[in-house]
């Protein structure tokens, strides 16, 4: 697991019977060359000792938030910035609840809240606690905040009950982190381009043809690509959305402008076309505002087909070309036809006749169609979570 070498990992050990497994996690990480600092919560000290952790990690163990020695050596903000990633193992139901509410009552929660690094949670608790609606709701919130969840597994627990809630084995946890770092290292060398939002096709200086696209899904995909290490460029039609500074944002208005900006930003390794580009434009745009009248006819012509151009560009075709299909009927038939006609690797289709998903909604439900005739449905969830799942599949395709 060479991706762990020289990586700085901040391990947060919470109180729970599974805390003893964290010692094995430390041993595996050290064996693979990781640099470890540890935060031990107050309740965790009932299960493991600072001495046992220090002897294995050969690194500092931090305990109380207002410990003068700790704060003089490295304050909680510096500690959160020191790490390449944070691993919370085991993650108790209480910790999950505190993090979901944004609590910062001790060193562990304060550092996690102040962190701008990837955070992995490894839940471990009684099966009834795991299945409780409040735990499920808190986990949903944390996933929205881009926390990464490992496990839990199904098995026999220390309390004697059997079910889901058993902490994942340390070797599986470390492998998952290694895989993430591998993707991050690889993706840092890869370029991704994403389009989002509608386009405006002008009839005269004040009127135009457009659609209901908000751009939310495309913006969330761009954020997820960036979090996963891709050098990300977002080419956006007119929206009121904001994007992270590390993402290159190019604002356009018409399909022709979007096409020219895409050409400027090729080649890339991954191209995802979520923008709802107007299929038609006005054949002849009026230079002055058209005055009100009883009837008025305009002639439309086909707009530039950006997806078709990029997916069939022999010299600069990305390794992965993904299109979107917003449909109101015959979703599967239309998506498969688009997949083949446009020579895409994947088509992500959704039913925009449903007012609760798709256009201008915070939620989405999509079906992904693959070139190899495989398909899978991503059930209703926030566009942020849909984006994480889409980028996970992008990583799988690149692997």
Short characterization:
The chain is an alpha/beta fold and 399 residues long.
Task: Describe this entry's structure for a reader.
The relative contact order is 0.09. The mean pLDDT is 91. The protein has helices spanning 21-31, 50-57, 68-73, 76-82, 93-101, 107-114, 127-131, 133-144, 170-187, 216-227, 255-265, 306-311, 331-341, 383-398; strands at residues 8-13, 35-40, 61-62, 85-91, 119-123, 148-149, 153-156, 162-166, 191-196, 201-202, 208-209, 231-236, 248-251, 270-273, 280-282, 300-302, 320-327, 346-351, 363-370, 375-382. The two termini are 16 Å apart. It has 14 helices and 20 strands. By secondary structure, the chain is α/β, with parallel strands linked by helices. The longest helix is centred in the middle third of the chain and has 18 residues, at 170-187. The chain has an 8-stranded mixed beta sheet with strand order 13-12-9-14-17-18-19-20, sandwiched between helices. The protein has a 6-stranded parallel beta sheet with strand order 3-2-1-4-5-6, sandwiched between helices. Helix 5 packs across helix 8 (133-144). The chain has 2 domains: 2-185, Rossmann fold (3-Layer(aba) Sandwich), CATH 3.40.50; 188-398, CoaB-like (Rossmann fold, 3-Layer(aba) Sandwich).
């Amino acid at each position: 697991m060479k991706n762990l070498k020289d990586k700085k990992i901040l391990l947060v050990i919470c109180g729970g019977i599974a805390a003893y497994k964290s010692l094995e996690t430390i041993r595996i990480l050290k064996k693979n060359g990781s640099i470890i600092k540890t935060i031990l919560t107050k309740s965790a000290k009932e299960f493991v000792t600072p001495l046992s952790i220090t002897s294995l990690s050969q690194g500092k163990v931090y305990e109380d938030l207002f410990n003068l020695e700790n704060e003089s050596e490295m304050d909680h903000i510096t500690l959160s910035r020191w790490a390449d990633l944070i691993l919370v193992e085991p993650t108790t139901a209480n910790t999950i609840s505190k993090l979901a509410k944004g609590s910062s009552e001790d060193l562990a929660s304060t550092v996690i809240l102040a962190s701008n690094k990837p955070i992995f949670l490894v839940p471990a608790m009684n099966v009834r606690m795991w299945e409780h609606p409040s735990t499920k709701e808190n986990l949903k919130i944390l996933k929205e905040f881009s926390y990464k969840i490992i496990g839990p597994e199904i098995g026999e627990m220390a309390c004697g009950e059997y079910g889901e809630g058993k902490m994942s084995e340390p070797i599986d946890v470390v492998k998952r982190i290694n895989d993430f770092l591998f993707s991050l290292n690889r993706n840092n060398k890869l370029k991704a381009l994403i389009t989002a939002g509608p386009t405006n096709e002008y009839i005269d200086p004040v009127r135009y043809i457009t659609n209901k696209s908000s751009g939310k899904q495309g913006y969330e995909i761009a954020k997820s690509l960036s979090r996963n290490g891709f050098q990300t460029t977002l080419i956006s039609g007119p929206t009121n959305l904001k994007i992270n500074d590390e993402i290159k944002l190019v604002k356009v208005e018409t399909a022709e402008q979007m096409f020219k900006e895409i050409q400027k930003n090729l080649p890339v390794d991954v191209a995802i076309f979520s923008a709802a580009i107007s299929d038609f434009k006005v054949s002849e745009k009026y230079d002055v505002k058209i005055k009100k009248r009883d009837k008025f006819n305009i002639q439309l012509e086909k707009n530039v087909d950006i997806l078709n151009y990029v997916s069939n560009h022999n010299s600069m075709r990305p390794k992965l070309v993904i299109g979107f299909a917003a449909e109101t009927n015959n979703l599967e038939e239309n998506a498969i036809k688009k997949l083949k006609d446009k020579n895409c690797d994947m088509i992500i289709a959704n039913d925009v006749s449903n007012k609760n998903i798709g256009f201008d909604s915070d939620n989405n439900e999509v079906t992904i169609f693959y070139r190899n005739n495989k398909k899978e449905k991503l059930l209703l969830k926030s566009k942020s979570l849909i984006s994480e799942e889409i980028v996970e599949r992008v990583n799988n395709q690149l692997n």
